[in-house]
Write a structure and sequence with these properties.
The protein is an alpha+beta fold. Helix content is 48%, strand content 18%. A hairpin with a 4-residue loop joins strand 3 and strand 4. Helix 6 crosses helix 9. 17% of the residues are buried.
Length: 219
């Protein structure tokens, strides 16, 4: 069994898997990186890595002058955009004559890094109407649940509970003002036990009942 190798570097680094996988450990994460995801490692972050199979990676080293301040490690799903970026990087890496294009592409990657949503936040936006456990979100990012909460608050300025509640409240307001659905139908859509629990939650959030909110905003 291969031992982990440990190091850190003065620059940021993006790992794009092409074939095989790589085990990576930081002080907060342990992931098995494969071609479905990419991983960003900020400067000065000590990380351990090892490979248990034959692999091939595209590695993009990013000088600190291109990076936003205080970037944190990010585990990102290889969606269509990131897959396209990986393709372009491969193309430019093979074209040594056009260095400026690679520089511009590197700048684009760092800008996207600044606005990219981690997988657990994507998950919340798809499933906020359903019960979501903190452990589920932490597992998606390969974090310990206790650390995940502080990481999430640093990322969004809110706790996971507040973030999810605000998404549900936004959808509740939309349904109240754009549909003629009953309180029972809205509460069912937002996965509340019944209309009473929905009304009680809405009053706690807004300071008035959903019926009154609808009346005020529908004129």
């Amino acid at each position: 069994m291969r031992e982990f190798t440990s190091h850190q570097h003065e620059f940021g680094q993006f790992l794009f898997p092409l074939k095989g996988s790589l085990e990576i450990q930081t002080n907060r994460q342990a992931i098995d990186l494969n071609s479905d995801y990419c991983f960003y490692i900020p400067p000065q972050l000590v990380h351990n890595y090892r490979s248990m199979d034959r692999n091939e990676f595209l590695i993009l080293d990013i000088p600190t002058q291109y990076l936003p301040e205080n970037t944190s490690h990010m585990y990102l799903r290889m969606d269509q955009q990131w897959t396209s970026i990986r393709y372009l990087l491969l193309e430019e890496a093979n074209n040594q004559e056009n260095i400026s294009a690679l520089v511009n592409l590197t700048r684009y990657v760092t800008n996207k890094l600044h606005i990219a949503e981690p997988p657990s936040i994507e998950y919340i936006h798809k499933h906020y109407k359903e019960p979501i456990r903190l452990e589920t979100l932490a597992k998606i990012e390969h974090f310990h649940p206790v650390y995940y909460s502080s990481w999430f608050k640093k990322k969004t300025g809110k706790s996971p509970k507040v973030y999810i509640s605000e998404l549900r409240l936004k959808e509740a307001k939309h349904l109240l003002t754009s549909t003629a659905w009953s309180m029972s139908e809205i509460s069912e859509e937002l996965r509340f036990e019944n209309s009473f629990s929905f009304t009680r939650w809405f009053v706690k959030c807004e300071g008035l009942s959903p019926q009154k909110y609808r009346m005020l905003h529908n004129g």
